[in-house]
Amino acid sequence: MTSTAKRNTGQPTGPIADTRLRRLPERGSKDFDLACAIIDDARIAHVGFTLGGQPYVVPMAVARDDRHLFLHGSVVSRLMKNLAKGLPCCVTVTHLDGLVLARSAFHSSMNYRSVMVFGSATVVTDAGEKVRGLNVLTDQLLPGRRAELRESTRKELNATTLLRLPLEQFSVKTRDAPPDDPANETQVPIWAGVVPLTLKAGKPEAAPDMPAGIALPRYLKSR
Amino acid sequence: MTSTAKRNTGQPTGPIADTRLRRLPERGSKDFDLACAIIDDARIAHVGFTLGGQPYVVPMAVARDDRHLFLHGSVVSRLMKNLAKGLPCCVTVTHLDGLVLARSAFHSSMNYRSVMVFGSATVVTDAGEKVRGLNVLTDQLLPGRRAELRESTRKELNATTLLRLPLEQFSVKTRDAPPDDPANETQVPIWAGVVPLTLKAGKPEAAPDMPAGIALPRYLKSR
Hints:
Strand content of chain A: 35-45%
Radius of gyration of chain A: 20 Å
CATH architecture of the domain at 24-178 in chain A: Roll
Order of helices and strands of chain A: EHEEEEHEEEHHEEEE
Distance between the termini of chain A: 9 Å
CATH class of the domain at 24-178 in chain A: Mainly Beta
Shape of chain A: globular
Number of helices of chain A: 4
CATH superfamily of the domain at 24-178 in chain A: Electron Transport, Fmn-binding Protein, Chain A
Helix content of chain A: 10-25%
Structural class of chain A: alpha+beta
Number of strands of chain A: 12
CATH topology of the domain at 24-178 in chain A: Pnp Oxidase, Chain A
Oligomer: homodimer
């Protein structure tokens, strides 16, 4: 999958105490650029919030716009209505990059890149900004696609809630390494290493209702 | 990636009111077998819980054992300590299966399979059951691997917390279809369809500290 290049403008504001990494600090990073790269490589995030004491974790499309994340959904969805109230939320993006096969179950692991973003979302009400934000979401789904599509109608915009979440309080965790067995176990006769995993695009499948003679767009040709 | 076949034993207990799907009910299913298939195809879940009013969503290894999920982690991790207290949690498994390219941004979507499991975890304290549960986790990571590895030591077992969460209160949501444009838009000259996405395993990368002459195991040969 292609990453979209985005600009960064300096350093984030200080993370809150809750985002301190208490375990495995060598995997932790507050690096803003790394957080951006991980988010920009994603199509979906897992969005967590709490209602009546019950946590919910919902997969949603995500996109980054400089120092904010955009989320969107139907204005009538319970999820969007609750997030729009400014409930505290956690938006987590994870890429599973590999299975780490050590010589023991205990040292087996996974390679991954993950960002947790903490905060409260606000509704984007400005009409122009809403159009722009939804375009950012479509562009992150598939760069190049948005420019081919018609403008959204007033009715479509009214049916959609766009939320913005600051990318200020966040925590990055990654692992990208071979297995880390104790020295006295590396000589056992068991294959050890990493099985890399990648989300790969397959052959595009044309919609059954598409008229004949429409070529595959350029941005899908390398797939 | 290979799914592990697991057995199902009948129907789940009734879902709680909170798991009702209020939006897009055509994508909703309470079907236990479908939930099992989605979970069995996964390596990781996103685990949500709330501490001091702040939701957290953390990626973790997951495995299913009949009507339960297993999660594990270090006994000293804050995450495991809190989950072990029986905090309400939500464990969500999602597979992103495709980009759905409609003729408009509004009708664009994604194909996916997702399960949210709600409940409270309990610590597995029985020594034999703990060994078995950790083996289930290693087997779900990569079927065939566990049998090659040495037994875990007492020290390793004592350093690990194993949690069990009932697969009783859950909600399934999936989309698996071409774009669903309004009939009056299907004739516009824009390519429309689905770009399938699959998590693919690449060529295994041997650990730098592996002795020469160790063959790739059978369960990695098709990768």
